[in-house]
Amino acid sequence: MKEVTIQKFSCEQLYNLWVTDPDLIQIIDLRSAIDFQEGHIPGSLNIEVKKLPTFLSHLPNKLAVIIGDNIIPREIENEILAFTNFVFLNSCQKWKELKYPMTSKYLGEKIKIKEDAKMKDIIFHQLFEAESSTYTYIIADKKTKEAAIIDPVLETVDRDLKLIEELGLKLIYALDTHIHADHITGAGEIRRRLGIKTAVSQHAEIGCVDIALEEGQELSLGGHTIRVLETPGHTNTCLTYYFEGMIFTGDALLVRTCGRTDFQQGSPKKLFESVRNKLFQLPDETIIYPGHDYRGHTSSTIGEERKFNSRLRETISMDEFQKIMNELKLPNPKKIHEAVPANLACGQPQDKRLLHPQIVDGVPEVTPLVVLQNMPQVEAGKIQLIDVRRPDEFNNELGHVKGAQLVTLGPELTKYLERTDKNQEIVFICRSGGRSGSATIESQKLGFKKTINMAGGMIRWNDEHQPVERI
Questions:
Q1: Domains 2-96 and 358-463 equal at CATH topology level
Q2: Cα-flanking dihedrals φ and ψ of residue 446, to 5°?
Q3: Structural domain 358-463, CATH architecture
């Protein structure tokens, strides 16, 4: 073999391309199959050196990043040097040292070794979104405060980010377990605000996501590791995240039941295999945190579900499971036509609404700070502010928000709404949030989809020292 002067990439250069423009590169790993299986960069291909010229000849629109010994065998040297669409990686080992994502064939073995992991070095919070009965999880390394959020919901992003700020966490990842059909992910909105990385299954084939995840991939979180298991069946994009003795299963495995399999390339056979051959192979003590629950359960264990899961316990056969799933005949999720397209666009709602309220007791709400941040949209006429107080309150000691229109709650507001475009985005305001909440409910009954209550009203607006007007 002869050493040849060739262009080289640093680990940092490759990582920047890998997360920002993955379509521009193809990673080629020339190491032995054993070394490759021990750990490799997600998305890389393991090929023999002698096949490299043929592979490069069929890769005209991408740059091949080659992991190997930086030495080209003499017998193919002339063929290789005829190409210009390749570089070598400086040091494969450094990728691991920098704690960049890795994947491995031996993920299951690693998990079994970690079964005695303790919770004392991590931060964990389970949060709930009532409209879609979705659980959102925040996990973090207690020492470094590096954190990830799993299955965030768009309407509760404000709540989640407030908690993250209160805990002093540094959010690194927003992870989705699959392409949801019952709610819009908050991952894209969180990325817009904080600049973090979003991640979802590679099988979703979403161009706007930062990291496309695959089986065995590892994401570092301080001194801890999130490991990825592909668990398709509910949809073809389902992932389970393993973290320190816990698994976050999305809809693949719920407490005493499982997700449906009748849309988004779902498959009873694949779900049965995912649960039985992968999840049920984990230690009995592994704690299961589901994506949803509709009966008040918050968690379970692998041991419990093996014994008691109504659809997937060990006494149920594959044929019996398929019969159960094929006979469910469930109606489609209420938000499927809105949620799926939005989630395939990284959580960007198709109606392009500007405000994404949190649902509180059935009423969509935003904080005064959110209203203040969107004042340019108010001035541009894209968001309308309606103050539903009496005329004598509009200019009293609390004043009113600049740009707000006075339309008093009651017959006056009803008439106003009846002649207003139902696609108009409106924020209702009152003294403390009660009357504006009623106005929001009334508008929804009239067919409005983008009406919102300003939580706390003008009292909270003044308490937060926001600017007021009086005429």
A1: yes
A2: -85, 0
A3: 3-Layer(aba) Sandwich (3.40)
